[in-house]
Write a structure and sequence with these properties.
With 504 residues, the protein is α/β, with parallel strands linked by helices. The chain is 52% helix and 11% strand. The chain has three domains: 141 residues, Response regulator (Rossmann fold, 3-Layer(aba) Sandwich); 124 residues, Beta-Lactamase (2-Layer Sandwich); 176 residues, Hypothetical protein af1432. It is rod-shaped, with a radius of gyration of 39 Å.
Length: 504
């Protein structure tokens, strides 16, 4: 039943069953240790703790929560000290796990049945009957019961934590599925994994990278000092990412965690979190489940992004066709789109809406495809009949684009229809005034005028910045929305940087 001393592995404090002996007779402590010196259960020896009164035992138990068995004398500083200690352990300390064995040298003083029922103890023995063999049996039974109770409790806690964790995974996954932009998705993923691993996001080094054909590691979101001054990922983080990439699985080592999230659209997405001491089995199960949801969400996001990018590219190319036909500058639509994006962000629009305007703005003059060359390419001043024809292009553009359920085409239709309306109501084709003009069209109007004035056209040379500012200022409140003009001037350096980036 018991392993021999030779077969017993060396005891370590972490691997021992902890047994508290509470007795006011020092000899009882010595005899108990000797009798149980060869004890072994599940490869674990015994570690003894000693208290010589009920008061001393209370102090010890408050600081040692993992004691498996307490062997308690009934009579110590008073006749019921052991019984009071047992009651205190269960009621005040609220410890339902520790096994309590009462030992008494005066069996008639407290009837066994009453003690076991009233004091919630596990065994009641007379000291005279506890020879070496019975002591072994008593301790073995008590520790086996403690072991099984702890396993059941651990399983219960595991299931509870898993349930709570699974709820967190579902909530986190739902949050990610709501994200429509790659930046929002990346930031949300970073936050949710940090939460699942019980990390504080603040002060934790993180890096999310996507593997793409052209750019091996593309930084999507980051918190903390993970890149150098040039925006390059630090070498030690690159090495960590490569380990997970090579293993095609999560990696935890040297205080960091790299999550590996495969995808069919790209090689994978990789999440780096620094300051991770360890991740237990439950956390890994939750991360695995979460990664499945993430992969699906990431896949859908990439597909949606691909559709959106394709629409945007087609719109941009169509815009270029129109501008090239009318002999406009080659990069006009690109510059104007980027300036629209800057103005949208400056006005407080979120990333999604700013990108929507950026992508739809190139179609503002799509109606010019129906304008005859004699009018469209006329380098001089248009006569009244020609001007009447030219003024039709906003309505033509709207007729081409209207009716779509796609947000990018809906926005493009509105911009095409209203970008020649004037803030004072004297514009065309509808004569809209002030905020009757859609906010997207008001932004495009400012960006379009600025680019037209700062670049050469078939009918004029490029103007100086001072001349442009004077002309736009003169048209503020009549032609252009004053708020948008103010934002343009406040961000003029960024706008000029766009011009420099996309020259004719």
């Amino acid at each position: 039943m018991f392993a021999t001393e030779e077969a017993t592995p060396p005891a370590t404090a972490a691997a021992c069953w902890r047994v508290l002996v509470v007795d006011d007779e020092p000899d009882i402590h010595t005899v108990t240790e000797l009798a149980l010196s060869r004890f072994n259960l599940d490869g674990r020896r015994l570690e003894f703790l000693h208290a010589y009164s009920g008061t001393q035992a209370r102090a010890l138990l408050q600081g040692e929560p993992d004691i498996a068995l307490a062997m308690v004398d009934v009579v110590m500083e008073n006749e019921t000290a052991g019984l009071e200690l047992a009651r205190w352990i269960r009621k005040d300390l609220n410890n339902r796990f520790i096994r309590i064995v009462l030992r008494t040298g005066q069996p008639g003083q407290a009837p066994e049945e009453r003690v076991i029922v009233e004091y919630d103890i596990n065994d009641y023995k007379e000291k005279t009957e506890l020879d070496s063999k019975k002591l072994f049996t008593t301790v073995y039974s008590a520790l086996r019961a403690y072991r099984d109770i702890m396993r059941i409790d651990a399983a219960r806690h595991y299931e509870e934590h898993f349930r709570v964790g699974l709820e967190a995974v579902i909530t986190a996954s739902a949050h990610l599925l709501e994200q429509r932009s790659m930046r929002d998705f990346a930031s949300g993923l970073l936050q949710q994994v940090a939460s699942l691993l019980h990390l504080e996001e603040r002060g934790v080094l993180v890096r999310l990278s996507a593997l793409r054909a052209k750019v091996h590691y593309e930084v999507l979101a980051s918190v903390g000092d993970c890149v150098d001054a040039r925006g390059e990922i630090l070498p030690e983080i690159v090495q960590a990412l490569q380990r997970a990439e090579d293993a095609r699985q999560h990696v935890i080592q040297d205080g960091y965690f790299v999550g590996y999230f495969p995808s069919r659209q790209v090689a994978a997405s990789l999440l780096y979190l620094n300051g991770v001491s360890e991740v237990d089995e439950l956390d890994m199960r939750l991360i695995d489940i979460f990664s499945t949801h993430v992969s699906l969400a990431f896949e859908n996001l990439l597909l949606n992004q691909e559709i959106f990018d394709t629409q945007a590219e087609l719109i941009n190319k169509l815009g270029n066709v129109v501008e090239s036909r009318s002999s406009e500058a080659g990069n006009h639509v690109r510059r104007m789109s980027e300036v629209c994006y800057l103005l949208c962000r400056a006005r407080g629009y979120d990333e999604d809406e700013a990108n929507l305007v950026r992508r739809s703005a190139p179609m503002h003059d799509i109606g010019k495809v129906a304008i005859p060359d004699a009018v469209l390419l006329n380098p001089g001043k248009l006569d009244s009949e020609q001007w009447k024809i030219m003024r039709q292009h906003p309505s033509i553009g709207y007729d081409i684009l209207k009716g779509s359920e796609r947000p990018i085409l809906q926005a493009a239709a509105t911009i095409a229809h209203q970008h020649h309306e004037r803030y004072d109501g004297t514009g065309y084709p509808q004569g809209l005034k002030g905020e009757e003009i859609h906010r997207y069209a008001r932004i495009v109007a400012v960006a379009d005028v600025f680019d037209a004035l700062t670049h050469a056209r078939c009918y004029k040379p490029a103007w100086s910045l001072a001349e442009v500012i004077d002309d736009i200022t003169a048209g503020t409140g009549t032609h252009l929305d004053p708020e948008i003009v103010e934002l343009l001037f406040a961000n003029i350096d960024a706008v000029l940087a766009v011009n420099a980036r996309y020259p004719d």
